[in-house]
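ugh ok fine here u go
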Amino acid sequence: MDSTSISQLKSLLSQLEPGYLPEPIFLEFTRLSVTPIFELVPLRKTSAGDIEVLLCRRPSSDQHWPDMLHTPGTVLRATDDDGLDQALSRAFNEIHRDFKKYEVKKSGVIFHAVKRGKELAIIFSTIIQDVQEQDIWMPLSQIEKQVVDTQVNFITEAAKVAFR
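structure:
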């Protein structure tokens, strides 16, 4: 890329506000850099003692994981000024719950490659016993078949920590 192109790109990028980026621009940034992500793994124990994870469904329009099940999570943004509380709130919003009502434990950090680039995932777990109509609960024994493959490690790590 020549200096004129770099200058034009810099000028265009300077017009963006920090925070949520338009998807095509976001995808190019994820291709070029490591994306810091916040992942929440909501878990529960059934009356039979089995561990289940609460999952969300990605939209059918998702470029990389259409209609796949995943853990709630978010990219950390330049506008996240309250530590991780804003990211925590966005993740809990995906499962229609208020994060202030739940204890959250740090479960690990994983650096990995996904279809859109490399990510540094900060993983947290929480125990949720209440059930809502739209919930998608899945036994840990079934996650490898139906969940975004790179998130299986998130869930496994979180399950080790959550019930200690």
